Each structure stands twice: as structure tokens, then as C-alpha cells.
Amino acid sequence: MGDYWSEFPKIREEEEESEIGRRKGDMPKRQLTLQPCGHNTAKRRTCHHHQQRRRRYVYLIVDDWERGYSVRKIDVDTFRRSSKAVVPEPLPEPPVVRFEGYHGRLWFFGAHGTNILALPAYGTADFPVYDMETMGITLCAHPNGHKICGPPLMASIAGKLYMLVESSLAVLGARPPPDSDEYRTWAWTFMPAHLPSFQGPDVKSLAVHSDGRTLFVSAKGRTFSLDTGSLKWTCQGNWVMPFNGEAYFDDQLDAWVGLCIYEGGFGHVCSCDTVPVAAECQTMPAWKLGKDQLFYADRERHLGATLLSMGDSWYCLLECVWHEDHVGEDYAAHRVYHVTTFGLKYDKDGELRTTGRKARSYEMTDAHELNELYKRPVAFSI
Where are the alpha helices (DSSP H) in 132-248? Predict the structure, then answer.
């Protein structure tokens, strides 16, 4: 599952200490950013990364074409084992596909199954959807035919694509069969499930529950859940998930996994227990900060990062940084993508650690200044 996220606002250190302090009681403050919370050891499971995984590729969308956007296919299975930065190389050639379109924050991208959607923020015309498996292009109707303010949030759940558009919920069902007598455009359905007291841009993190049908989102200091079967929203409590962007349920760890949103967890992943969907959870569930630093750059060069699930407790982290020849400038057209794959497990001391890290780096130059893909990498695992 994938979606396009704008750079999330940083949470202040005081908020981090306050939130974690409620979880840890009298724990000394100097430990808060390093050991935020214990994990429920009763839920741990053994991780087996040697099992055969379904081969997935990373599709990275970049602004390297004067007429639009390129989709670059990265075969992460060819990476070499490494925990250090490697010399950047050009992005893989040729592009899998290119989407022609205006720049200037006019296009949003999302993924559903094997499809990548190129959604314009303006206009009533149908937009293109490219199937990475069949290499076919189809058209999909614009969700509402009006301007979309800010990147919409998309979640692919049980064969349907759910999108939070401002304060409404739109659902994209199955594609019309090709042999139908009457041509029908692949279209969205707006559902009577208005967002409870927040809009799409307010969301800091989201994750699909282990039940495969419930979507959790954290916004405005609270966490909500959406039952995609009944389309009913529930406020789970006055707490937020500790993630920056999308998190994923890891059945080997029996927990959600995502990038840590707190300042003290910069460059680290973290795990968080899931909560029962039937009952409201009044306190933040137990979570654990990973021990290993995964970012290559410091704050000065770091632009953004995206975590992807590759399946079977295997992950891919894409970090976008300024090239070292642009340090200190207001804008860096020359950028580097550090791509790292890794597994996760709990060690004998109960610490969340990475395993089998492999890395590769790519460099490119933007075709347009301050484009909408400027900071956070837009990529999907398919």
C-alpha cells in the first residue's frame, strides 16, 4: 500500500517528553528519547527472514522530465549487504512510464494493487492509471471534479482504495470488466462517512489494523478508526500513534512498524502494539524505539524519508538528501536517494533491531525548482 504525503510538521521535544512521561512514570528525562517505552514481550514472535518472499520492486516517482514525471523501477533484491552509504549512481534506465502534466503542486500519486494513479489536483477530466504488471493504461474519473486542497490520503484495503478528500471519504472499487457491453469509467463513490473533527491534511500517521479491514489514523492529538465494512468512525482515545506517515502491521512482531515521529527518534523505526478495534483505548499502547540509526544524513542535508513494506517483515527505507555540493543553499536541485532494505526482530534483550541491511544510493537533478516531490520521496512497493 502506498500514498503521497507532504512533509509532516515536527513535534516539539516537550510534547515528546510529555507523552512518553505519561507512559513511563518516574523514568529519568535523559532516557526518554532513547528508550521511550517497553514492548509487550508476551506478544513477541520469532522472525524468519530466510523464508521465500514474493518478489517486489520499488517504484520511485521523480521530477526529472521537463514535461512531467518519471517512474523509476528499483530492484532491491540486487542490493549488496551494507550499513554504510555507497557512492551514488544514476537512477535506473529507462523509466517504466512517464506521466505528462503541469508542475507546481498539481499532481498527486497513489498506489492500489499493481496500479499507480497520477491524480491532478485540478480539473474534471479523467486521469491516467498505469498497471505495473500488465503495462496497461486506463482512465479513472476525478474524485470530485474540483480542486483538492493538499495531498489526499490513500489506503488500499480489501481490494478497495479509500481516499480521504478534505472532510469526505471516497472509495474506488473494482475496475469495470473489459468485456462489458457498456463502457464505464472507473469511478469513485463518495460515502456518507464524514471525517470526525479533522480533515485529511491534519493526519500525522495511518495504519491498517491486523484485521485487514480497519483503518487507524492519528490527527489533532487523537486517534480514530474507520471500519471499512460499516463505514463507521470511532475515536480510540486522546493519544497518537508514534509514527511519521504510514505504518504497517508486522505479523512476525505482532505490532505496527513505522518511522518514529518524535525528535528523539529521528532516523529510527519503532514498533507499536495494535489495539482492539471494538473498545476505546484510553491510553497510548506500548511502543518501542528501534536501536539502529537508519538515516545517512544529518538534519542539515535531510529532506524527507518514506518507509515501504516489502512483505514478510522486510522493509525498504528511502531517504532523500541534498547532494553534498548544495549544503547550506536554500534549494538543492541536485539530490541523492539513499535506499536501504532490512528486516526487523527483537534481540535477546528485547530491543528492536534491524537485520540483513542492504543499501544503494542514486542521484538525480530536478527538472523544476521547488516541485511537489521536493522533499518526501514518493515511492511504492509493488
Answer: none
Among the residue ranges 14-18, 55-59, 98-102, 138-142, the one predicted with the least confidence is: 14-18
The amino acid that residue 119 corresponds to is L
Q: Which three cell numbers, joined as nine digits, stand for 107?
A: 499532481
Total-model pTM: 0.84
DSSP state of 359: E
Collapsed DSSP state (helix, strand, coil) of residue 352: strand
Which residue do the cell numbers 491524480 mark?
A: 119
- In contact, 172 and 207? CB cutoff 8 Å: no
Residue carrying the nine cell digits 471525517: 195
Residue 374 to residue 239: CA distance in whole angstroms: 30
DSSP per-residue codes, 235-265: EEES---SBSEEEEEETTTTEEEEEB-SGGG
Q: How far is CA 311 from CA 50, 136, 343, 348, in A?
A: 13, 25, 10, 24
Q: Residue 247: what pLDDT?
A: 98
pLDDT at 282: 79
Encode pLDDT of 109-138 as tens digits.
999 999 999 988 776 678 999 999 999 999
* Residue among 91, 116, 117, 120 at smallest CA distance from 103: 120
153 close to 206: Cβ distance less than 8 angstroms: yes
What average pLDDT does range 198-227 have in this prediction? 93
Residues 6+ apart with CB under 8 A from 105: 121, 372
Supply 316's cell numbers.
525498504
Strand partners, 27: none
